[in-house]
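To the team - pyridoxal-5'-phosphate complex, inputs and output below.
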Amino acid sequence: MLFNPSIVNTTAYALTELHNRAIQLKEQGIDIINATIGDPKDDTPESIPQALSHALTRQSYSQYPPYIGSQPLRQAIAHWAHREYAIDLNPNDHIVACNGTKEAIFSFPLLFDWSDNAVIAQPSLSYPVYHMSALYHHIPMVSLPLSLRNGFLPDLDAIPDATLQKIRLLWINSPHNPTTTIASKAYLTQLVALAEKYNFIVCSDECYNDLYDQQKPASIMEIDSIHWVCFRSLSKRSHMTGYRSGAIISQNKDLIQWLKKMRSPMGVGTPSFIQEAAIWAWSDDRHVDKHRALYNTKRTRLKQALNQAGLSVFGGNAGFYMWVKSPKYSTSESLSQWFLDHRIMVTPGTTFGDDGNPYIRLVFCLRDDELNRLIDQLAHDPIR
Ligand SMILES: Cc1ncc(COP(=O)(O)O)c(C=O)c1O
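Output:
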């Protein structure tokens, strides 16, 4: 059978030595804190499941949901965007709701013609879905190097002209998973100017933009252009990863028109009762303020504990990750091992690309009891 070789030949999940060691420790009854998954552990605000169950009792939902998102949902997204970024979006021309942004990101490249050897560009450390999507769709990729020297943001002046000529989509993710870097408005403006000059689309993945400590991160939506598409998600800001709800936004009417056509046969309509809960979430700013405050407290406590343990934290001013290194460990693997010896499982930076050495990524979207234990364990003697 001729299966897609990009699926057959990639390892779904490499069982590294580190994971084997974690399994071993668990078998010995040693409790390991899993700080690898960016999935908020604190509860979803009560009003969200209430909006959902209220919707369910109001009417029967035996019909297919509107796959582009209901009119009230797209209107709620437009109102939210106006409150946040003073942008005027037309719910019909500029917004498509999605089933969480992961599926939207994965399928987005299908919208374009790749027959002329055009490429997708992504930072050398990235959310793996950009790469997996290109791989499965057989689209060539170019990697834009990240390092501490460039503040973990692609150096736009260093992209060769020949590469810029070939780029059709360029992924940018700010605040960045995994490094937490925040792109300034000036940076995004320069990027969009390049996209206009070289006729490509900036795909701005902004699922962490609402969770910041002091200064609100810039959004691509602050820049007036038809050369961007923005992916926003309720998963992190509203603790709704399990609901699957997000938005694809662009000022480019043609792009949105063809995107709707493309998504029509895909079966990605979010169930209508979840769309009702999503309307509540986009319309309420107070719960997001609360979540911001919640993560500010967790962030400050954890940063302090990491510094006291002799580790250095890069950035860490937005999102719910810490990008950490140690002068004593020259590889991500050895630093991850140090954490595991302290009963904490983290993600080696190299999981996101070779430029991740010698960092690790640690999540802090944990419940307070778990975070307290993690902080205690940082100060504890290692198990050996
Ligand atoms: C950078 C980035 N983009 C997109 C997503 C997908 O989020 P969702 O599908 O829950 O909207 C994630 C999830 O962890 C992420 O880290």
